[in-house]
Amino acid sequence: MKILVAVKRVIDYNVKVRVKADQSDVDLANVKMALNPFCEIAVEEAVRLKEQGIAEEVVVVSIGPKAVQEQLRTALALGADRAIQVETEDMPDSLAVAKLLKGVVEKEQPNLVILGKQAIDSDNNQTGQMLGALTGMPQGTFASKVDMADGSVNVTREVDGGLQTVKLSLPAIVTTDLRLNEPRYASLPNIMKAKRKPLDVTSADELGVSISRTVKLLKVESPAERSAGVKVADVAELVDKLKNEAKVL
Ligand code: AMP
C-alpha cells in the first residue's frame, strides 16, 4: 500500500503574526516557518502505518516555491520515504493546490491520501474536500482514528457533539484532526538520513494541470486590541461593576 501525504509550509505556530504596513498580506520577512501541525499529524499517521507493516511506501508532497523543500526534508526526517515538490512561483490558493494534488494522485496512484484538516496560516479547511470532489475519491475528514481493513479504511471523525465512524473504500482521502496521534520529534540521525532521501521537483506543466488564481487577497488586518480584564473579589463587586461601570444591568 502506498500513502501520499500533502504537507504545507506555514508560519511556525509560536510566532506572533505581523501584518505588512500596507495591509496587503502577512509579513513573512525573517519569520520562522514550519511544517503545518496538522500535516505533521498526517505524516506521523502514515509512518505508523508503515511501521505496522500496513503501508510499504510513504510519499510526501508539497506545493510552493523552493523553500517548501525545507518542510519536505522535515517530513523525510520524520520517516517518509520520498518527497515531491510541485514548484510554483508563490503559494497557490486551495483550488489550485487541490488540482495539482489530483495530478500527483493520478501519477502516483496512492491507496490513501492524508492531508491536514486545515493549514494554520489561512484556516481554509477545504483542500482535502476539494481533492475529494475533483477525484471522486471518498473522504473521511477530521479523523481522530484511522483503522485500515481489507480494501477499505474505517475513519472515526470528530463531529459536533461526538464521534462518527465511516467506512471508505480505497483509494480514499483522510484529513487529520488534533487527537489522531502525537507526532514524534525528528532525531538527529534521521535528520541526517533525510538529506539523502529522494526529493523530486515537478511542475504544473509536467503534471498536465493548468492552474489560475481564483481567489484574490484584498486586505489583512490585525485583530482589534482588547483592554486587559480585571479580577473581582466576589459576586457583589461583579454586580456593582456591571451596574455602575459597564452599565449593562
Ligand atoms: P487548507 O485547506 O488550506 O486549510 O489546507 C488543508 C490541508 O491541505 C493542509 O493541511 C495540507 O495537508 C494540504 N495543503 C494545503 N496547501 C498545501 C500546499 N501548498 N502543499 C501541500 N499541501 C497543501
Automatic annotation (TrEMBL):
Keywords from the named record: Electron transport, Transport
Domain of life: Bacteria
Pfam families in the record: ETF (PF01012)
InterPro entries registered for this protein in UniProt: ET-Flavoprotein_bsu_CS, ETF_a/b_N, ETF_b, ETF_beta_N, Rossmann-like_a/b/a_fold
Residues annotated as transmembrane: none
Named cofactor requirement(s): AMP
GO molecular function: electron transfer activity
Gene Ontology biological-process annotations: carboxylic acid catabolic process
Keyword Magnesium: no
Entry keyword Nucleotide-binding: no
Domain Electron transfer flavoprotein alpha/beta-subunit N-terminal: 23-211
Role according to the record: The electron transfer flavoprotein serves as a specific electron acceptor for other dehydrogenases. It transfers the electrons to the main respiratory chain via ETF-ubiquinone oxidoreductase (ETF dehydrogenase).
Quaternary structure and interacting proteins, as annotated: Heterodimer of an alpha and a beta subunit.
Family: Belongs to the ETF beta-subunit/FixA family.
Protein name: Electron transfer flavoprotein subunit beta
